[in-house]
Amino acid sequence: MEVAVIGAGTMGIGIAHVSAAAGHSVNLRDLEPNIVMDAIDTISTRLGSGVDRGALSQSQADTALDQLDGTTDLESAVSSADLVVEAIPEDLENKRELLADIEEFVDEEAVIATNTSSLSVTAIATALKHPERAVGLHFFNPPHKMKLVEVVLAEQTSDETAEFAEEFVADLEKTAVVVQDAPGFASSRLGLALGVEAMRMVEQGVASVEDIDASMELGYNHPVGPLELTDRVGLDVRLDILEYLHEELGDRFEPPEILRRKVEQGNIGKKVGRGFYVWEGGEPKDVADDEDYDIEDVI
Ligand code: NAI
Question: Pocket residues for ligand 1 (CB within 6 Å)?
Answer without folding.
Answer: 6-12, 29-31, 35, 87-90, 98, 115-117, 139, 141
